[in-house]
Amino acid sequence: MSSMPLSPEQWVQLNLQQQGLHQQRRGKAATLATIEQLGYVQIDSINVVERAHHHVLQSRIANYQPQWLDELMAERKIFEYWSHAAAYLPMQDFRFSLFRKQQLQQGKKHWFAPDHQMMQLVRQRITAEGPLKASDFTATAQKNGPWWDWQPAKQALEQLFMQGELMVLRREKFQKVFDLTERVLPAGLDLRVPSCEEFVAYLIDRYLQSHGCGSSTQISYLRAGLKPEVQQQLLERQAGGELGSFMLQGQRYFYPQNLPELAPVSRKVSLLNPFDNLVIQRQRLQHWFDFDYQIEVYVPAEKRKIGYYSLPILYRQQLIGQMDVKAVRAEKVLLVQHLVFNEGLMLNKTTGLSDGLRQALRQALADYAAFNGCEQWQLVRATPAVVNWLQS
Questions:
Q1: CA distances, 286 to each of 6, 32, 281, 308 (Å)
Q2: Tens of pLDDT along 205-252?
Q3: Exposed, middle or buried by CB within 10 Å (0-12, 13-18, 19+), for 177?
Q4: CATH of span 109-184
Q5: What is the value of pTM for the model shown?
């Protein structure tokens, strides 16, 4: 086992750098480059504020515009499929989606048993009529067609999508519009189905690219049955001199031998989405940032400690707290319903937040409010009570 080439603080610095959180980029081309660097951007439907996939990119692209994601889809530079969850993925990685698709085609179960008759009917309609969404398959009494039952048709669409016969062409009011894969894919794409070894190598490479280092558990996160193969390949690549490893708090981390140079630490505040690539693995977050985080969307209201939709707050290299947010769009006000700072965070009893932190947090809130179409933000409650400190 090789020695630890960086201090724990430097590993955190590298992680944030590889996540694009130290040096913000600008423009649509940088948006694509960021998706390629991260490997995926998770899609989520919750919209009390701007949806997760847009927020993840806004955290990294200074002038991010949501329409850029639609344009990149239309230009066939990204596509929708499954990472550890529903996600936008770089089109350059398309062949690696074929690994899961082949498994499903060969009988591996997804969410429900395939209804092959309904799948055939859905496939025939899209072939004949062109792109369709689930709501196009509503009940009809036409004598020349089937009685469409929306739920089975929707399941058939999703199964055909997961198996690779359909792709998402675009979204309309967040509804997926499906078309035949051969009518969506750009020409000249590599369509070779990767072997298990190739797919595992892809998982390792993408994870180390976007985080700097990782354990076999983290690299195989929500990839059922692949952890042994990931662990074996990590050890083989270390033995071949390609990777190094070190132990920290009882976990073995692997890293590429050619590490990038460290960039300066950002002095800005980043409000991170609950589904952000940095945040999504809670155990890793606890390990590296000593930050105990749980999204409380699925927690009964009376048991919530922070609030329904809380954003972790990143300042320099620390996660210093979180805030529950809601955009009241009709009034163009972003409500910070509960702002909570970590216990032990150094707060001046007289002046509250340091001038640097207060200024950075106010700027982050102003930017996030504007991103949500709001003209102002309002702090409702804070723990500890820093209302005057922040807004004065």
A1: 19, 29, 9, 21
A2: 999 999 999 999 999 999 989 999 999 999 999 999 999 999 998 999
A3: middle
A4: 1.10.10.10
A5: 0.93
